[in-house]
Amino acid sequence: MQRVLLFVLTLFALYASALAQSLALPDLSPPPASTDKAAPLTTLPNKVKLPDSVIVAEKNSAPHIALLLPIKSTTFGTSANAVQQGFMAAASLDEKALPTRVYSNFDEDKNVTTAYRQAIANGAVAVVGPLTRNGVATLATLQDFPVPTLSLNALDNTLEPNLYFFGLAIEMEARQIAQIAKQKGLTQTIVISSRAPLSKRLQAAFEDEWNNLGGKILREIEYADDPAIFEGLVDTPDTFVFLATDVDKARFIRPYLLVQREANKDIAQPKADENAEPKPTKLTMSKLPIYATSRVFLGNENTLVNFDLSDIRFIDMPWLLQADHLAVMTYPRATSPLSIDNERLYALGIDAFRLTQLLLARNITGALPLDGVSGQIQLRNHTFQRAATPAIFVEGRAQLNDAPIIRNMNFPFTPPNITP
Fold first, then answer.
1. Which of 42, 259, 293, 373 has a CA positioned 20 to 30 A from the CA of residue 285?
2. CB atoms within 10 A of CB 300
3. Taking a C-beta distance cutoff of 8 angstroms, is the pair 66, 126 a contact?
4. Tens digits of per-residue pLDDT, 217-240?
5. Helix or strand or coil: residue 23?
6. What is residue 277's DSSP assignment?
7. Nearest-angstrom CA–CA distance, 215 and 178
């Protein structure tokens, strides 16, 4: 009987064990880590940052200066090529300079950082470029510049080590005009602009600087091809006009700025004789001093255009105004004719090479100001600022402000009819 009871108890124990295993909860603990290093990841956490793509140095890499320019761009290719020509022209005169290599197979808005990293991997000891403002903004996101880097445009409030800026920002010319007018003792201004976005940028930059200098803005005029807007302009003491326009608008506006001189109220006027016949009023006409940027200068070969801009004061670079300038005489001109804008970019390329050499020599402080072909160059924070050369239109030519003026009194300048 005992054997039978033991057998029954054994069967019952086996049945209970099988039932417990069938009702057990699944194991929620993580599986052991795989020891297979080649096993691919199937999912990635959302916040995991993937490393940058690996940049491999090309064969026969060597120390060089890298030019990052969008030469293959349909929009900026011609401008980039002018900069390259100027840079290479300057480099050709320096036997000790490192070789220059051009990197052009990139989009300045998208993968300029990849081109920069490739240049560094290939042995670049200095980088010049990119050219556009968007390209410079994209490059600045790197925040790591192991070699001197000279961008050919400007950004505000960017002070990364080894990152410098140098360009032809037209807003700087507007600010310089405000400074020149203040130095001349002028205190009031009339600002004339058009509806073009660049004109508005010039106006904003000029007015900001003029206000900072304590000047007064008498009137703002937006010219929309209707000369009637200039009625009522009077030549008041210490007043000048700033033309924030291009050359085409300036040619139309210029004749209407021959205005009536304001009467001097401090001088006692003789008492009129009541019995005398009234004499016809004689208008005294005057030319308001007019200032503009380099946008009004197309070169001295455009004589007729320059005649239309008679007596307008403006600023531009020595490369276009001073043939006897030492640096201008030193560097060769482009082998093929360039437009006036590309001549300016060619000059930018020359001075970019010279600044790059100073950055490599760690001799910036001792070498500045640099008497460049684009102007007097100073360093403020990390931006190389260019002071252009003052000039004036006289007898169909642009000449320096301090040059002796020889006028042709027979030149038939006919102002428009102005009613008193």
1. 293
2. 15
3. yes
4. 999 999 999 999 998 887 788 999
5. coil
6. P
7. 9
- Angle subtended at Cα 45 by Cα 39 and Cα 46, rounded to the nearest 5 degrees: 145
Q: Residue written as tokens 């600010």?
A: 175
Pairwise CA distance, residues 296 & 2, whole Å: 122
Over 345-370, what HEC string results?
A: HHHHHHHHHHHHHHHHCCCHHHHCCE
CB 292 within 8 A of CB 194: no
| Encoded tokens for 342 | 């590309």
CA 55, CA 146: separation in Å to the nearest integer? 15
Confidence of residue 53 (pLDDT cuts 50, 70, 90): low
* CB 306 within 8 Å of CB 300: yes
pLDDT in tens, 105-122: 888 878 899 999 999 999
* 283-302: average pLDDT: 86
Contact 242, 208 (CB under 8 A): no
DSSP element (H, E) containing 86: helix 77-91
Go through 32-54 and write b for each residue having 16 or more CB atoms within 10 A of its CB, e for each that does not. eeeeeeeeeeeeeeeeeeeeeee
The closest alpha carbon to 131, from 73, 175, 173, 170, belongs to 73
Alpha-carbon distance of 310 to 316, in angstroms, equals 16
d(CA 261, CA 53): 69
For the entire predicted model, the pTM comes to 0.79
* Cα–Cα nearest to 247, from 202, 299, 298: 298
CB distance 356 to 65 below 8 Å: yes
Residue 238, burial from CB neighbour count under 10 angstroms (0-12, 13-18, 19+): middle
Residue 180's H or E segment, with its range, is helix 170-183
CA–CA separation, 286 and 265 (whole Å):
17
Alpha helices in 234-339 (DSSP H): 247-253, 303-308, 318-321, 326-330
Q: Which residues have C-beta within 8 Å of that of residue 299, sequence separation ≥ 6? A: 320, 340, 343
